[in-house]
Specification:
By secondary structure, this protein is α+β, with helices and mostly antiparallel strands. The chain contains nine helices and eleven strands. The protein is about 35% helix and about 20% strand. The longest helix is centred in the N-terminal third of the chain and has 15 residues. The chain is elongated.
Length: about 280
């Protein structure tokens, strides 16, 4: 009986090994293929995303949802947007209406304050002080800059009240902002965190003295309903061992000694004549 030559058998086995070597990655012992994630067919390897030291999200770790913006924060962002403007109106209301259309910001004219300054809200209804009102912004200019230039020409100003921009005199606008009603409910919360939350909700300019970082972490507990914003800030500051003082249009939380000094230096705010008239929602 003829036997199969041993040399031929060895040659066939060697040829089979060489023909299959490239499938497993080339020379050397074959290694199993890298498992692919679902939907990753066609990729040989998966490179993990590096995580920066001190932060980042590792694989399989859920990302934290961003904090929801408050209406006041959305208005601040809208006022900071860049917008080219070139508009001339026959009334302040017309100019503000144009700005509202462009920005989708809810503006409200304080009828009483505007008429006290001698400007007709609507020239169709007559009144003194009828003039042209200009809204102009070069490319790249912020909305708040154009708005302030327009209002400066009328000796008016604006404040943020929740989801509204109120246009009034500086004294009346500031009074309305500081006296807006808020509900406060904090339990064992760091003072700085509580004040930051109030500023986010109301749009008020609120600053904690950076020299008092340790005191700003004092825990406070306060629950009040329908309190004025300024009263709420003063109570929180007092519970945290500090004191709030109004400096212009800013509430500054600092030590009692510095607050007393600033209070003596602050000029007396002019009184608000008459009653606040109804605003005009645009």
């Amino acid at each position: 009986m003829n036997t199969f030559p041993r040399g031929w058998l060895l040659a066939m086995l060697l040829g089979f090994a060489l023909s299959h070597a490239s499938v497993f990655g080339g020379a050397g012992a074959p290694s199993p293929p890298t498992p692919l994630p679902p939907g990753g067919e066609g990729r040989l390897t998966q490179v993990p995303t590096p995580v920066a030291k001190g932060g980042g999200t590792q694989a399989g770790e859920a990302k934290q949802d961003p904090v929801d913006e408050t209406p006041a924060e959305r208005i601040r962002k809208a006022l900071d947007q860049s917008l080219t403007l070139d508009f001339t109106g026959a009334s302040l209301q017309e100019a503000i209406e144009h700005l509202k259309t462009k920005t989708r910001i809810n503006f409200t004219l304080d009828n009483f304050a505007v008429q006290q300054m001698g400007f007709a809200v609507d020239p169709i209804n007559g009144g003194v002080g009828v003039m042209q009102f200009h809204l102009k912004n070069e490319r790249g200019g912020k909305v708040r800059s154009a708005l302030q230039r327009l209002l400066n020409s009328c000796n008016l100003s604006y404040v943020i009240l929740e989801d509204t921009v109120l246009i009034s005199t500086e004294s009346i606008g500031l009074h309305r902002q500081m006296q807006q009603r808020v509900n406060i409910s904090y339990e064992q919360v760091p003072l700085q965190k509580a004040l930051k939350d109030l500023a986010r909700r109301t749009g008020v300019n609120l600053v904690v003295d950076p020299r008092l970082t340790a005191e700003a972490q004092n825990k406070v507990t306060l629950q009040v309903d329908d309190a004025s914003l300024e009263t709420g800030v003063r109570l929180l500051a007092e519970l945290g061992g500090l004191r709030a003082v109004r400096v212009g249009n800013v509430l500054f939380v600092t030590s009692e000694a510095r607050a007393e000094k600033l209070h003596r230096q602050e000029p007396v705010q002019p009184g608000i004549p008459g009653l606040l008239g109804p605003g005009i929602g645009l």
